## 1
Amino acid sequence: MSQFDAEDPRRYRSLIKAAEDHDDLFKALYVDHDDRMDSVAGLRRRRRSASNSPDGNILAASLVEENGVLRWYDGVPAREEAPQRRRRARRAGGPPPLPDQTVVLIKEFPRLQPNRAAAAIGAIDMRLNSAIGVSLQSHLRQLRGGPRKFVIDANDVHGPFKGRTLLLVHGTFSNAVNMVGEFEATTDGQAFLNAALNGPDKYDQVLVFEHATLAVSPVLNALELGRAFSGATGAVHVIAHSRGGLIVRWWLEAFGAALKAETRVVFAGSPLYGTSLAAPDKLQHALSLISNIGTFAEKTLTLVGAANPFLWVAGKLVEVVMTVTGTLAHTPLLDGLIALVPGLFGQSQISNNYELNLLRLGPCTTQPAYFVVKSNFATVDPGWQFWKNFRALRGADLAADQIFPGDNDLVVDTGSMTNLGETDFPLKIRDIEDFGNDPEVWHCNYFRQKRTIDFIRRNLP
């Protein structure tokens, strides 16, 4: 089994606990291995080697804090060599000394069995969303309750739907419970959902769409959504967060021919033209950013346990990456690996993402009204300026370890949130709620903002 070690366990206690709680996720998928090699003593004996053996069944990765930023690396840091390297660099006038480092987490794990990487991605999906079964089939379910607490029915609902329908579509690493929880977190959000369910102008049904976000492409999610809403009449209003917006685009623009309803959609932080976070050449740094987001979300949103998957999901993806490629560094194999994670590839902002390129050409099967909530996160809090390490602040700043070439909300490029297609694309954004350069608004707290709730109310009458 994996072994965990931290030099400062108090500071990242939640992150370490989340990693340990999900240590068994791939248990049935690992190659056979000698349990004696998993002991802490065995791990420490191998600390002189900072790299993994290409033919070994046991791999190691480390999460290291460098000047306040968490980064994932292959192997185990060879800490005893660091002072010597620093002295040699200073004498030779070479690169600057190594940054201040703290080893937060060392995890040792067996390789996955051959041809089991896809199964591992599916296992992550099922752990992220308990509503998803082994088939990874999506589910359409009814939201009930109010005025402050809301419950999702355990059983699926089926159309054709009539009257007025409100649909909530969650994003990557999330689920409907977490998305509803963001509305429950504020009195404005509670009031909105309560009015949608129980008010004088209530919807005939308020639904949530549960879907796998990693092992299934947004295109296939959209196909399922199109089937579920076949023959629906009246009005369908949609609130889509993050990747959910890309699903809704595919549904309404490609698979919406059987939909007979008027549609209006509010996208919140949605990668309408993909996200740089899912680009293959940025994967190692993206995994590091995800872990940083986990600690940031815990402190700023008080997200704990299942509500904060950012604390553990990067570590499990590290295991898949290292099994397939043998390293976290960028290699040509990463392109193939990203293809093994259709949920990421489908929203990868790269020039040869043919899925997205085809979507952006049109034509469209329906004519929805689109509205957008967007932001550029730029906190002035010195304790949370890790984001600067993953974004180019000036055009010439783009370096190998930076993910975003410009404005972003920590997960999605801001420019992508309003970029539907080429200049002659048949659909347009009707209205935008732009938080601008905001020190507080970021990808995971749009629905906690009064301005977002007011914007939804105005545009989903």
## 2
Amino acid sequence: MQHSYKTGDAGHVDFVGAGPGDPELLTLKALAAFEQADLVLHDRLISDEVLALAAQQAKLVDVGKAGFGPSWKQSDIDALLVDYALKGHRIVRLKSGDPTVFGRLDEEIEAVQAAGISWQIVPGITAASAAVAGIGQSLTRRGRNSSVRFLTGHDMKGFADHDWNALARAGSVAAIYMGKKSARFIQGRLIMHGADRATPVTLVENASRPNQRILATTLDQLPTDLATAEMDGPALTFYGLAPRDAAQAVTEFNKEHA
């Protein structure tokens, strides 16, 4: 059961979605949590503009994880949340995008709940929503796809496995999180299961931010074009979607007037 905060409690944790990086996309509820926090435990990919909105008295602690790289252990993050909350701190646990989408939220909720600490979830705009807006498309479209899959490129065991047969069907659309390093693996699995090599694939790097970049390619050319683009920021991969020309124009306009 989700708990709400009451004045006088020993401590409290708000699991807040930071959105894709543009501070104007934060919710009013997220801003309210920022204003009350005296400690912010944040992911690695949170933008500086979002972190700047935290209350002046708030201590910022980076507890970020990096795919296939050095990271905080989840058990250590859980312990830190509990320790600070039991000392009476009002904590914002700040996660990129929406905390309920590939945010390892459950482990942290279970830890604070077991310690008797009050908590709540503050939703945020997930990367797929921000990135698809950046290419001027819809995640679903009548006559094309009545469902969309949110996938992760890798999990705790390595590259993640999925229902490749279903994904390879014409008209399928998928939003792939953390998919850059697994691009060749994903390409191979899809082609092996009959996917059309000409299927459009679009990557959106730094979605919603001033340095947003859009890479439009195909399943056949995905690993090659991705290597050439040298994307080093967080990127969302859309399988089955190509950007509208108008969206590309707006992206260039925003860069020129930033």
